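Design request, tokens follow.
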């Protein structure tokens, strides 16, 4: 063999090796982009599953617990042993080392309630509505106010200590009434 054909073979092998390396690099880059896209899709799906799980837990506890969302207008229903109430968040403001919520408690029935208690809990954004959640802070508040039929009563619910994030994750677990009063005919 002469040097010229040997040189041509060497050049051809080098070009072929470079082409194959470039192809592998492009394939690896494409695979890395695919993996990045798949990770993003998995994260999106996890977020959607968390949201669905939260909605499912609330539907399981329908009307027995209420998540107070200061950004949401309107009211939510909560059931008690003696009837049901409507809850609406009117304001959230910093208070000491936490926050103070102004909540309207509505009595849509014809019953007059004298005094009531509200059980409240708050915590991180990923709420677990099970009874064993240790990250949640809890408080029971007593209100001597009379709940007149067909009216709203404004109550102040202090949550402390609490971060801003926790102030937007407040759950009313229960409303208990002290005295039920009906009119006589």
């Amino acid at each position: 063999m002469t040097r010229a054909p040997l040189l041509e073979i060497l050049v051809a092998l080098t070009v072929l090796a470079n082409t194959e390396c470039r192809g592998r690099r492009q394939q690896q880059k494409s695979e890395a982009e695919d993996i990045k896209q798949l990770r993003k899709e998995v994260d999106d799906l996890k977020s959607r599953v968390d949201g669905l799980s939260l909605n499912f837990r609330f539907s399981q506890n329908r009307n027995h617990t209420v998540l107070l969302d200061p950004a949401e207008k309107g009211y939510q229903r909560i059931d008690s042993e003696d009837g049901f109430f409507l809850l609406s968040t009117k304001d959230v403001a910093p208070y000491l080392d936490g926050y103070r919520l102004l909540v309207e408690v509505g009595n849509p029935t014809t019953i007059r309630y004298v005094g009531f208690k509200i059980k409240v809990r708050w915590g991180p954004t990923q709420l677990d509505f099970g009874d064993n959640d240790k990250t949640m802070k809890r408080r029971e508040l007593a209100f001597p106010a009379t709940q007149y039929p067909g009216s709203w009563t404004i109550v102040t619910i202090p949550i402390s200590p609490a971060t801003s994030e926790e102030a937007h994750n407040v759950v009313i677990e229960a409303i208990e009434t002290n005295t039920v009063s009906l009119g006589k005919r």
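Comment from the thread starter after seeing the answer: thanks! The mean pLDDT is 81.
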